Amino acid sequence: MTSTAAVRHDWQRSEIEALFELPFNDLLFQAQQIHRANFDPNKVQVSTLLSIKTGACPEDCKYCPQSAHYRTDVDRERLIAVDKVLAEARAAKEQGASRFCMGAAWRNPKARDMPYVLEMVKGVKALGLETCMTLGMLSAEQAKMLEQAGLDYYNHNLDTSPEFYGEIITTRTYHDRLETLSNVRDAGMKVCAGGIVGMGEARSDRAGLLQQLANLPKHPESVPVNMLVKVEGTPFANLDDLDPFEFVRTIAIARILMPGSFVRLSAGRETMSDELQALCFMAGANSIFYGERLLTTANPEADKDQQLFQRLGLSPLQMEGYSDDVHEAVIADAVAEEEQPPLYYEVS
User: Fold this and answer.
1) Catalytic residue among 99, 132, 255, 269
2) Which end of the chain is more exposed for a tag (fewer CB within 10 A), N or C?
């Protein structure tokens, strides 16, 4: 489908705040028109997320149960074996996922980690799935290595507005995040970047986050919008809930500002009603994580999502066919994998 909305990278904060002030029905109507001009409104891209290294992260993100700064129920786990990752990827594909995302609780991957991470990318790609990773900050060299291994998407969220950022994290700057996104884009990979709402931020901060994303040189191909999952032991465990309609407004405005991006209804779905999720799809969300866990927090069970899709007349978006060149590369990688024993990682 062809968009009738102009793609802009010069949004002013005042323009975005004005969208937040629109009557709810008018905002959703505008977002739905833009959504239909760019996408099949009844198709949803489905991804599965696996934590490949859990806990003991040196960052101090106040929302994150994996931070070493806080006492939570999350256990520290080493980078898991490549063959276990591939088994999870096969299961995800059987459940209908078209993209397999892998996340590691690192500030940034070390040189010793890269060979294992690259094997994961190659193996998941060989299964016919799109690949995505979130590993923390990346150097330009690391980004290029991941791209050459076949990584399709790299996730690195901005979290919130530049003004509110210091209230959430002090161990990494906003510029650090933007630099990683630049390295990913320069390497030739697609960008997955969004944020979290419900962290005590003001509406102007939600507008500021969306402004930063929409004014990147190229819009992120995927924009995850996360509702804060409050975890006991983190500084944000007892924050007040965000108004659900404000969450839907954020989804709708992301769709308006970034008409060609997949807007992902991400963390927090486990506590959302079917009616709230339906409003989000109406507002322009067309991507979800599928499965029982998102890294360390709960997510709706797969069969519950299937039932919701059936009730709403939605269906998973299928991946487009690979080119002959990619098929040849996949076959070559599969042959090479059969000739080598699986890799295991034993370094903390």
Assistant:
1) 132
2) C
- What kind and span of H or E run contains 124? helix 114-126
Q: CA distances (Å), 123 to each of 6, 23, 53, 249, 336, in order?
A: 39, 48, 17, 39, 10
User: For this structure, is 280 an active site residue?
Assistant: no
264 a catalytic residue: yes
Strand 130-134 vs strand 99-104: parallel, antiparallel, or unpaired?
Answer: parallel
260: amino acid identity, one letter: G
Cα 321 from Cα 69, distance rounded (Å): 45
Phi, psi of 140 (to 5 degrees): -60, -35
The single residue of 172, 177, 264, 269 carrying the catalytic annotation is: 264
Cα first-last separation, the chain: 47
User: Kind and range of the H or E element at 179?
Assistant: helix 174-187
Task: Provide Rg for the chain, Cα atoms.
Answer: 19
Compute φ and ψ for 9, nearest 5 degrees: -130, 25
Q: Could you list the mean pLDDT of each consecutive 10-residue stretch along the chain, which spans 348 residues?
A: 71 97 98 97 87 73 71 66 89 80 84 90 90 91 95 93 93 92 96 94 97 97 92 84 96 98 89 94 91 45 80 81 34 35 37
Beta strands in the chain (DSSP E): 43-53, 99-104, 130-134, 153-155, 190-192, 195-197, 222-227, 262-265, 287-289, 293-294, 297-298, 315-316
**Dihedral sign (CA 10, 189, 205, 284):** positive
Detail the DSSP E strand segments found in 27-145.
43-53, 99-104, 130-134
pTM, entire model: 0.82
Of the candidates 286, 216, 220, the residue with the CA atom closest to the CA atom of residue 251: 286
Catalytic hit among 99, 172, 177, 192: 192
Structure tokens at 133: 């990773």
Catalytic residue flag (residue 101): yes
